[in-house]
Amino acid sequence: MKKIEKKYTEANECPITVFMTEIGGKWKPVIIWLLLLKEVMRFNELNKAINGISQKMLSQQLKDLEKKGLITRKSYPTIPPKVEYRLTNKGKSLKSLLTEIMQWTNKHMLRNGE
């Protein structure tokens, strides 16, 4: 394991705090994971795949991920409108991190009855 080179005196200086503020939360990691699995998804596909998210919240989360350069949005001039979302290279770079989080969770938090 790499040695942590800098001691952070305040939590808001810590890169983990920055990550959790920008990409953490209830919905963004799930959206990113789904796009890692399927590559391209439409708004309604994402909405159906994420239990408990409202359309308004999904729209806000997608806009924020797009603003951060993690996803792209492609709109087609059709009736009804067709919009597709996919990860950018920056978004795809989260794959190993999210995979490790999933593996850790499966090992340490999802043990049946423990």
Outline of this structure?
This protein is α+β, with helices and mostly antiparallel strands and 114 residues long. The protein has six helices and three strands. It has a three-stranded antiparallel beta sheet with strand order 1-3-2.
Structure commentary:
The structure is a single chain. The protein has 114 residues and is α+β, with helices and mostly antiparallel strands. It has a single domain (11-108), classed as Orthogonal Bundle (Arc Repressor Mutant, subunit A), CATH 1.10.10.10. The chain is built from six helices and three strands. The chain has helices at 15-22, 28-38, 43-49, 55-67, 89-92, 95-108; strands at 40-42, 71-76, 82-87. It has a three-stranded antiparallel sheet. β2 and β3 form a beta hairpin. The chain is globular.
Topology:
Elements: H1 15-22, H2 28-38, E1 40-42, H3 43-49, H4 55-67, E2 71-76, E3 82-87, H5 89-92, H6 95-108
Antiparallel strand pairs: 1-3, 2-3
